[in-house]
Amino acid sequence: MRITASNLSLQAQGRAIIDGVDLEIAPGETFGLIGPNGSGKSTLLRLLAGLERRAGGEVALDGQPLRRMTRREIARCLAVVEQQAETAEALTARQVVELGRTPWLTALAPFGPGDAAIVDNALQAVGMEAMAARAWATLSGGERQRLQIARALAQRPRILLLDEPTNHLDIHHQLALLRLVQDLPLTVVIALHDLNQAMGCDRLGVMAGGRMVACGSPAEVLIPDLLRDIFRVGATTLTDPQDDTRLLRFHSLETIR
Fold first, then answer.
1. Does the structure show a pLDDT above 80 at 85?
2. Which of 34, 53, 133, 224 has the fewest CB atoms within 10 Å, i.e. is most exposed?
């Protein structure tokens, strides 16, 4: 499913949080959002999901404007995994993932065996099937993050929006999650802090001061001038001899002459 944004904007207290962002993401593309803290990545994801009513501009899914769709219709197309998810309800891990089926349930089509199988598959995809009976309140931050991703997968969306999903995860689960995302037959928009992880995306958009200041392939975007100007670091590109993967080694600008 294609997602397009035209002149997306959002102001708060007279300041532009998102300023005139235009974007088109092709079906099946993994699009990474990168930028310094406070650059607008998380807010842009919320605007793409239609979660901010004050926003200007327009977002469309396959040409259908979000503003003409019901929340149920949007939820059947698009799932969001935000940085922090809390609940005051006494839910088990499995019950959290079952919430992902809500957009598909009606009085005439209640939760059934097919939904249970989808939840089982989602839990297995994130390696949480053994913890399905655990109470949410007893889980670590990383375990909760994996459950929120499972909930999004159980939603069976065609577009997946992820806000720094590797936060709280150990390196094993970071790599497993990124591999899972890359293999999903979905359109994915993922905000990332780790620029080496971002190199696995099809394209990158660079946010700074609420604007998208660069957009292109990782090789086109992650260049020395941009890294210096936007991230205030120097970088050397290295090649892993095991698989020829490009990696960035960063340097403090104070050490570069």
1. no
2. 53
